[in-house]
Amino acid sequence: MSTSTTDRANVDEERRRLYNPYHDLQIPIQNLYQLPTSPEFLFQEESVAQRRSWGENLTYYTGCGYLSGAIAGAGKGFVDGVRSSEPGDTLKLRVNRVLNASGHTGRRLGNRLGVIGLLYAGLESGIVEIRGSDDIVNSVVAGLGTGALFKAASGPRSAAVAGAIGGLMVGAAVAGKQLVKRYVPI
């Protein structure tokens, strides 16, 4: 671009008035995009609640458990279906085998993790209601109870081992959440 063309473009730009859609609103443009960092609530009662209600917890944990179990189970079923294919199988038969294995394993694992989420949410909400406080102990005890209840039909030894595993897993998850809150800037 030559200097005369550049000078002409600068002069044309200075003469032109930019359109400001907020001019008639009498709002300073600097304040328009300063968004609040605190959460906004539709109703004042929502700002008082520090945790989800028992029904929201039940839905959240059950849904997350089922979805994660279904995805992980479908992945494992896919691998099993691919491994079980035989050299003489047609493509249609292989695809059918993979789909059947994925659906079966995904459904089974999804249901198991959904039930575990349901038990955990119910126990945690009940413990919070009984104790009257919401702290880490409630989560760990709910994890212990969930593992024990889930494997109760397999005998007392299996229930105790599953309870210990559940308590350890929830304890590790809560500790990890606290570390992330403390050391990771969000």
Automatic annotation (TrEMBL):
Predominant cellular place of this UniProt entry's protein: membrane
Superkingdom, natural source: Eukaryota
Keyword annotations from UniProtKB, A to Z: Membrane, Transmembrane, Transmembrane helix
Keyword S-adenosyl-L-methionine: no
Pfam families: Tim17
GO annotation terms (biological process): protein import into mitochondrial matrix
Membrane association type: Multi-pass membrane protein
Compartment(s): Membrane
GO terms of molecular function: protein transmembrane transporter activity
GO CC field: TIM23 mitochondrial import inner membrane translocase complex
Leader sequence residues: none
Keyword Oxidoreductase assigned: no
Protein name (database record): Mitochondrial import inner membrane translocase subunit TIM23-2-like protein
